[in-house]
Records
---
Amino acid sequence: MQPTLFGTLQWTVSSLTRYIREALESDAQLQDVWVRGEVSNLSRPPSGHLYFTLKDSGASLRCVVWRSGVSKLGAELHDGLAVAAHGRIGVYEGGGQYQLYTDGVHAAGEGELYQEFLRRKSALEAEGLFAAERKRQLPGLPRRIGIVTSPTGAALQDVLNTLGRRMPMLEANIAPSQVQGTEAPAQLIRALERLNRSTPPPDVILLVRGGGSIEDLWAFNDEGLVRAVVKSAVPVVAGVGHETDFTLVDFAADVRAPTPTAAAEVATPTTLDQMVGAAEDSRLRLESAIMELMGGLGSMVTGAAQTLQFRSPASRIRNDLQRVDESGRRIESAARQWVKLRAEALDGWGRRLEALSPLSVLGRGYAVVTRQEDGAIVRKVAQAQDRISVRVSDGSFEAEVGGERA
Amino acid sequence: MAKKSASRSVDELDYEAAFRELQEVVASLEGEPESLEEAMALFERGQALVKRCTQLLEKAELKVKQLSTAGEAPPGEE
């Protein structure tokens, strides 16, 4: 500032403007504001920046959006639109203009909707409708899944693809409904009720729709729908919008999923792969069990044969005895070997099955010894009587037992 | 238990029934059956059940049905 001839200080235009600018821009309250008004004089010159005026009945405010911020604005602007704009107050010195440097806008209706959402949420929450105790467990292996959604939307395709990939061994029942607009809440409620009433009813219901604005998803904040979800006898999984979208049915449902695909995943905790694994495990146990038994039986027959002496045709019988003995030992080690090699695939198990079959064991020299009198199988020495039948792989012969039984 | 259900043909069993019976058969076989005959019977039944389970898993295809809107009450009347 220059002193004047008369002694009072005088500003220049620049210095005064600079002073005003600093005064406004150093006020923290003016650096982060939301302001409500109506859009007018919208213009977008070649520079790419966006200019408009926000006004109400008493005043107007010039606003500017830098080119880089236009796509991130959050709403499409047009003259007459009621909005809330966010930004900071600055001064454009060259034009002697204060203005709002705007970085975000949303249509005024959205703000009101959100308030309504909060109001309903606390009212319904106070009734206990969202309480954790109400939430039910989902079945581990559903046989039938109900889906409430638009029949033409991408959400349905995502859900069906996910179900088909994870657990195709089930039936999907679709109850179609509009998912936005004034008709939507009533249709959604009816669809939920129809699934609950169907015979047989599904084991779990997915309530899904794709992403959208708060207006698009508004049907899922309908109080009647919330009550229908809570009342549903079948557990409900809600998968509405994107991860960050929350609607009232999300709070009312037994499980909330962030997206339709996630809802389908949550509803199928047991996958086909897991079931194939479980069947394979059972098969391995089955085969191990029979091998154990064969090993055990082998030693019993070997032991019994060793303590019996057969009469003529002695030489032939002694040969047989010897074969039983050796076979018994061979069987046991083969069994152990076989168990070691057990890491094979399903392919060829039919051939292995044959090798395991108790009947083919006879081909390896086992004999089944029975008493002639009553046909009972001889397992222990004490069971042996004088007259026995010996069954080998291709037939049987009779024998008399003589000599020591120890 | 496994002996009683052996009267039902394996091909009539759905997946849960087949798998459940398979578990029972394996348990019986692991628990030392009384006779060679019983062991053989259990083993063969078990093989049939494994085959049935595998078949059902391989053939599994998502069945999709859309409930019709026919006979719907007009809005506001339900």
Note: Chain A has a mean pLDDT of 84.
---
Amino acid sequence: MATGTGAPADTFPKLLIRNADLYGARPAMRHKDLGIWQTWTWAEVLELTRAYAVGLSRLGIRRGETVAIVGGNRPRIYWSMTAVQMLGAVPVPVYADAVADELAFVLTHAETRFAVVEDQEQVDKIMSVMERLPRLEQMVYDERRGLRDYDHSRLHPIDDIVTEGRKALADPKVGAWLDAGIAAGKGSDPSIILYTSGTTGASKGVVLTGEGLINASSDTVAFDKLTENDVVLAYLPPAWAGDHYLNYCQGLVAGFCMACPENADTAMADLREIGPSFYFAPPRTLELLLTRVMIRMEDAGYLKRKLFHYFIGIARKYGERILNGQPVPLSGRLLYGLGNILVYGPLKNVLGFSRVRVAYTAGEAIGPDLFAFYRSIGLNLKQLYAQTEAGIYITAQPDGEIYADTVGPACPNVVIRIAENGEVQFKSPGMFAGYFKDAERTAETMTPDGYVKTGDAGFFDEKTGHLKIIDRSKDVGKLNDGTLFPPKYIENKLKFYPNIREAVAYGDKRDFVAVMLNIDLTAVGSWAERNNVVYGSYQELAGHPLVYDMIEKHIAEVNRSLAQDKVMAGAQIKRFLILHKELDADDGELTRTQKVRRGFIADRYDPLVKALYDGSKEADIATEVTFEDGRKGTIAARVKIRDMQTEPVPAAMGKAA
Amino acid sequence: MRAPSGTGPEVAVGDVLLSVENVSLSFGGVNAVSDVSFDIRKGEIRAIIGPNGAGKTSMLNIINGFYHPQQGRITFKGKTRAKMRPHDAAYGGIARTFQNVALFRGMTALDNIMTGRTLKMHTNFFWQLLRFGPAMAEEVEHRRRVEEIIDFLKIQEIRRIPVGRLPYGLQKRVELGRALAMEPDLLLLDEPMAGMNLEEKEDMSRFILDVNDHYGTTIALIEHDMGVVMDLSDRVVVLDHGIKIADGTPDAIKADQGVIDAYLGVAH
């Protein structure tokens, strides 16, 4: 990393000035507007944000106060952050899809007098909760459309603010005032407040400092060798710590170009046009992409299909080894090279991955097959483990040390330890300064010796030295013999099989682990078609002995893989059943984000859970279901339960810590 | 939105844009429309409603020049006419959408909307074949206008997708886009929300209001969803069996006994 003249920049506005100096004519931001990619250079962005900042200051924004920023991935939303930071104020980004209630909570809690919003939708949302926001004085908006007839005494278009700022800057004294303000900004000042989505209780405002974020970014930028020549597509919400860190912070530190998609739905097409070199996607997005490719391949002609499957086979055999720099026979290399010309190259091009040097996935466990697929076609996909409270990165996989089931070793300058109860704790350069206005919860999250509790349980893998995250630590239970029981870890391993849609694992304070499963109707249905299995309903297919046989094989594999980890070996699955109905959010069995509600399901299917543990071979169950149109009905069934063989457990039982 | 808004035509609602006087149309012995008179004022959203077979689409087709009434006069922008061909109407500034989507299914959304610009193209066919010089410059300008419409209707993500592969609600939106591309003075919408789900209806209502507000386009629409009609329109004309039975503001129409009878099917 080249550093500018003088003291190293410790705030983002200072970095912007440095970038305009170093990379003035290079692109800093791109945005597709009216079908054409518009580009702003670092020098242009600096000029624009300076004018914007001056305009905002005339509106009354003062040092130290908070400013809400509500919107999606648009250049002006990001520039709003910088402009606010230039004034020494603290941007508080809010998710564009937050409902009015959440908006009201964040704006009240953060005590904002000003809000920058994207469009009419956001203005309407804020107006609808106005009586709860007595502090809010002025709103600034990006998109004019539909706002013409609104009362403009408290509502201003960003363009006008910038124009006004430009006019004011004609006076050199104003420019000097602004520069002095930027120079007066300290690295230890709050740089941004990111509200966490808050799965438990009200959301918390995580305060991050400029210095912390910049130090952490400098480390990760060096780690992944990011330079001003890189390009990213910012398509995940700017209010999310991942986008803020990966694109905004790293972008300013490394000086690379951030591209904003035309709108939220065009991200995939824009990805292809921009061809980013650094890419992040949650596992779900990667899965969606792969499914789309596979569906399109099924529709392709015979020759293309054959070609595709043959070379994907080659890629699975050699691709990952080539990417990892491991020895591969010459014939393999040649075949892979041919495959690259015929299949992998074009495929990556369609997906927009042609130029990706570094790609990350995180957020949840990724299926080993899915992970291997992308790596095998030559995408350098890696995993990281991150938390808003950490600035973001805690661990990341270095090139050449990639495993589907680990999240990598600690990042540079990050210290990790595993607590007594299996919880992962860390200290990092980007570590948060505390929760906004919530000393109590800040104290709860910190250990007395200054580590941050992640709330995740994990352990260091012996073979690789990488961290493995197994579950939220409050969900991790113990079997009666003391073996660690992480339900989600086991469920995820099961769900990686396409035939298994959902899994619910039980074992906390029990003698052994037992699971209830949902089969995937599409996958198992197509298997049934190929194997002449006749069935009339989901219930019938779920109870079919051959389906049980197939699922039994999957579970046996999961048990084998669990047995390989000393810590997990005792948590092998001893009994399972396949539920007679699909778990459904309408019945309250899943959350709206499709997560299983283990406790609720245990109550609802109590006879089944009892039967899993009393040794019976089958059990009767009747459950009330809600149909799509709101009517209710009852489904009754007799569900079979099977016993599983378990793998021998290695000598030392995996007692937690 | 950019350019057209601020500089757009400030429309004073009030001047009569189109008036229909004593128009009658029959097919053989069937009277589709009998002696109907009403007017459409500049800048308003005018709804034509009525039970099935009331003659609504016939009325639209008359305005559009597709049908020629046997009796009566139509005055559009101060010019009175008895007969007009649809292309005259199009040149004159009347655009429409259809009850059943009438797009080129094999063409992309973008190309479909571009066809709406055809009437505005001035370079001749051969220049356009060459796609060079003035034809290119003109195409760039038209494309810019089309992109504004795409942005306005928020259909960027389907720009390159053949219309036949789109869901119905989006096809309707593309059709609206094509009509808008003509920059019409009068936009006729034949059941813009038929077959849509609630969310699509809300979106479409939003777009209709935005078009009216933003481009100052006068809109005449036929619609069956009463809730939508009453919320959207400034004035409503009600037809039943080809006869005008009421004309007025939505509130007046709601209270009109004749309308209630017509909808509940009281014997005539």
Note: Residues 1-5, 652-657 of chain A have pLDDT under 50 and may be disordered.
